[in-house]
Amino acid sequence: MARIPIEDDFTDVLRKAQHGHRISNKELAERADITPENLAAVLAGRPLDAVLRRIARHLRLNPDALEELAHKRWYPVQPDFPRGFLMFNTSYKDMTVNSYLVWDPKTKQAAAFDTGTDSTGMLTEIETAGLRLQHIFLTHTHPDHVAGLNLLATATGAEVWASELEPSSRPGAKTFKENAHIHVGALSIKTLFTTGHSPGQTTYFIKGLSWPLAIVGDSLFSCSMGSSTNGFIEQLGNNRTKIFSLPKDTVLACGHGPLTTLAQEKLHNPFFVR
Predict the structure, then answer these.
(1) Which end of the chain, N or C, is more open, meaning fewer C-beta atoms within 10 Å of its C-beta?
(2) Can you tell me the distance from the alpha carbon of 222 to that of 130, in angstroms, rounded to the nearest whole number?
């Protein structure tokens, strides 16, 4: 698979933080003691470091991490899973979206997490590896994440699961509460409600692979986090308390952009670097 670009650039991060904290351009320029022209230049994509750092402080972003992102100085080291884990990346309009397949190598029992826009590649891997897909877990039901759901569910007969708080995208889908525990062979899966981006946005924390794994959907991206119309503060808090409290070697499988790790995001994500 070709290298997947980081989902958000520095202007995306600025806009998400500005909108989330409900600060107008006029207020932000005044608080940061910068000219409206310099603010407009930065929001248009000019990485003026001194201006960027002033803005960052008033949007509760880490200035060093934001400057690093603006100049594209860092990309997450990709974790290696020798077996039991595959990532799929499919196109949706002007972006790409991720879906994931995990399985117990001994029993061949498997679970899918989202489907992206086309589940054909996942179906091919399931057949080639002789896997038995038991469950399809949805992080949330936005169209880009579930467009391939009917094909995958019909072809495999797997049960479809989503949070009890998330509108279902398929008749007969089952629901779970927070902190539900599901086993797929020797793998254990725990549900964490990391709501904000959607009403039932869920993170799945998985043990039993080479590394602890959190499939976070659009809760979190490398160097950023999911957008939200009205749930930014809720999303930010859930990310901090439920994702950033996981073991530091946890791999983060995001809904968009590359894989990353909790340890790396603690050093490079402008929303969460202390």
Answers:
(1) C
(2) 32
Task: Give residue-wise pLDDT tens across range 197-252.
Answer: 999 999 999 999 999 999 999 999 999 999 888 899 999 999 999 999 999 999 99
DSSP 3-state of 240: helix
Pair type for strands 132-137 and 159-163: parallel
Q: Which amino acid is at 252?
A: L
Give CA–CA dist 103/54, Å, rounded. 47
Q: What is the pLDDT of residue 4?
A: 96
Spatial distance between the Cα atoms of 86 and 89, rounded to a whole number of angstroms: 10
Nearest to 232 by CA among 8, 13, 15, 16: 16
Q: Counting Cβ atoms within 10 Å, is residue 182 exposed (0-12), middle (13-18) or buried (19+)?
A: middle
User: Model confidence at 1, in pLDDT bands (50, 70, 90)?
Assistant: low
User: Helices marked H in the chain — which ranges?
Assistant: 10-20, 25-32, 36-43, 49-58, 63-70, 120-129, 143-146, 149-156, 232-238, 262-268
What is the set of domains in the chain, with CATH numbers? 10-70 (1.10.260.40), 85-268 (3.60.15.10)
Please give the structure tokens belonging to residue 192. 């964490």
Please tell me the distance from the alpha carbon of residue 56 to that of residue 78, in angstroms, as a whole number.
Answer: 27
pLDDT tens figures, 37-58 = 999 999 999 999 999 999 999 9
First-last CA distance in the chain: 33
Amino acid letter at 240?
R
d(CA 125, CA 19): 41
Burial label for 166, CB within 10 Å (0-12, 13-18, 19+), is buried
Q: Tokens 């201006």 label which residue?
A: 51
Q: Are 84 and 102 in contact (CB under 8 A)?
A: yes
Residues 6+ apart with CB under 8 A from 128: none
